[in-house]
Specification:
Elements: E1 5-11, E2 14-19, H1 31-46, E3 52-57, E4 61-64, H2 69-74, H3 78-96, E5 102-106, E6 108-111, H4 113-120, E7 123-127, E8 134-135, H5 149-157, H6 159-168, H7 174-180, E9 185-187, H8 192-204, H9 209-215, H10 220-227, H11 229-247, H12 252-264, H13 269-283, H14 287-304, E10 319-323, H15 327-338, E11 342-346, H16 350-369, H17 375-382, E12 385-388, E13 399-402, H18 408-421, E14 427-430, H19 437-441, E15 450-455, E16 464-469, H20 475-487, E17 491-494, H21 503-519, H22 524-534, H23 540-547, H24 549-563, H25 571-578, E18 591-592, E19 599-600, H26 602-607, H27 621-641, H28 648-659, H29 668-675, H30 677-691, H31 699-707
Parallel strand pairs: 2-3, 3-5, 4-6, 5-7, 6-8, 7-9, 10-11, 10-13, 11-12, 13-14, 14-15, 16-17
Antiparallel strand pairs: 1-2, 15-16, 18-19
Length: 716
Amino acid sequence: MEPIFRLVQLETGIVELIMDLPQEKVNKLTTSVMAELESVLNKIHADQSIRALLFSSAKEGVFIAGADIAEIDSISSSELGFQKARSGQRILDKLEALPFPTIAVINGACLGGGLELALACRYRVATDHPKTKIGLIEVSLGIIPGFGGTQRLPRLIGLERSLPLILGAKKLDGNQALKKGIVDSVFAHEVIHQKALAFAKNVMNSDDKFIRARRRPKGFISWILDRTLLGRFLVYQMAKKDVLAQSDGHYPAPLSALEVIKQTYGGPVEKGMEKEAHAFSQLVITDICRHLIALYYTDEVLKKDPGVVASSLPKKIRYTGVLGAGVMGGGIAWLMSNNDLSTRMKDVSWDAIAKGYESAMTIYKQLTKRRRLERREANLKLHHISATTDYRGFSRSDIVVEAIIEDIEIKKKVLAELEKEVGADAIIASNTSALSITQMASVLTHPERFVVMHFFNPVNRMPLVEVIPGKQTSPETVASTVAFAKSLKKTAIVVQDCPGFLVNRILLPYMNEALLMLEEGADLEEIDEVVLRFGMPMGPMTLADEVGIDVCYKVAKILEGGYGPRMKVAQSIQLIYEQKWLGKKSKMGFYDYSGKERKLNPHIVEKVMGIGRSNSTALTDETMVERCLLIMINEASRCLEEGIVTRPDYLDMAMIMGTGFPPFRGGLLSYADHLGIAYVKDALLRYADHLGERFAPSDLLTQMAREKKTFRGGQS
């Protein structure tokens, strides 16, 4: 068996411990890795000739990616979880106890357990390479750091700096980690090993008070917040407030981590380690942890999925074009420019183009305000966007994304024009949210290079892109579009052509059902509130205002035309649309946005509530949530039945990334499994008895209930 660790003599007294997990692309801390590490550390501790140690990785772009997710997922009891954490703590304690300088040489991803190992070293240096990402990301998997992270990081850099990193699972690049005090120096990745050796020599022969002083925040206020009972109380209260604002308390891991730190900071480290291990052991066996780990696996599969079997490599995209400079067009142009792609934006007038530029600039302003980008860098990226009112410059585009009005005839006219202006191998993509690609492709001479590339609004925040091929779209076009979406740091899921595609086909019935309940006399704000309590990022009425009432109405009409009575559009949205209350963009929708604070549109009550009261049922909170969710589950099962999407976990990921469906519930179909497929089927039948065929269970659900199957495999 190949060794995982190699000990190399660099100079007299200085050795390098190199980690290289055989047959793996990344280093990770498995049980066997930790056992070998312990053995190596025992030998190093006994070697009196060693005066300094560099801990490095042989993997390109990876230091240590973290603990082994499969092993975490396999923990079946809190006792085993406790043992796992305590074992890891004990081994890293041995690394920390080495009687000479130890330097972690971070040359790439250093996450979770990888950072916990680095924190057990006396010093840390990192590269300035984009692949260097440093963070304790455990809460994103529903757990907390279990190898000492809650104890070492706050003691290293202070409470104020460490809590947002631990509770928010933030990843830092090398320079950001230097500013926070986590690493002690940053070097160019080409010379990291030479510089790390020089760093080791320096700390061997000098006092490190200057280095240690640089790690913690300076100033009287920072001292108060970190060293006094009142200061710490304020820090803990603010941290808790931030966590609850982000999660509404649905995720126990950040609150658990906060409680561990609150109880142990400033006290004996050993007691802190024990509390950390205990908290880890309780979280690792929860359903939330299982759900988040399952989503992690799905995400990893999607990253590697090319979307289609193609006979050639994906086309390289260098130059892009965007047709339409509205909110979506401006957002897409921003996305291209932010990824350093030359982008040509077209609209019918310079006034329209100005609005597209304004959309892009607004996003860059937000990023600079939040210090995600320097102002100079944002300005440079913005200059990647050029504009025109004709097709000049589009001949060199490798891909053009059409993002104009959702009108099939207008789209067909524009696409036919565009095809004559672009190069022979350019990909033409439509950002339509619901219209048939087959119909649009009918006007093209070369439909094989036409595809739908559906971004979600807002483009800068929504991670999903639906890729929809037409009947004649070539596999190479699909593969190139999927690869391009991934290069934009988006998750691409290939779905088949149908009205609404995948996400909107499932989402619009949910929004429509909320409107029907409103018509029955349910309180608008209460509908929004109960859905929020379930875990959705916003209520259906708020969502309609965000998307735009006009967009929702037009998409809903497309779905009604495609699926008939089961997707009959609620009267209320037509009434609101006719009033030209278009949501946030017109400052009036279901809510009034004209003042500093949002308030209910007072006219909604008189125009909408109760117009369908004859169908009214007992609209309890539970009923409102159930109706909204069951209608989605039913339509999702039809999408699987029809092959619109190939896998249930892909559908779940699409709903999470495209609608914000709560990850802690594992996804829409995972939630259906939790409810029980038989229960879902019976509940749908119960609602169908008095609300009609829109609740009639799909054939797939009926079959699954009969055979006691679940969406994610196994028996119910």
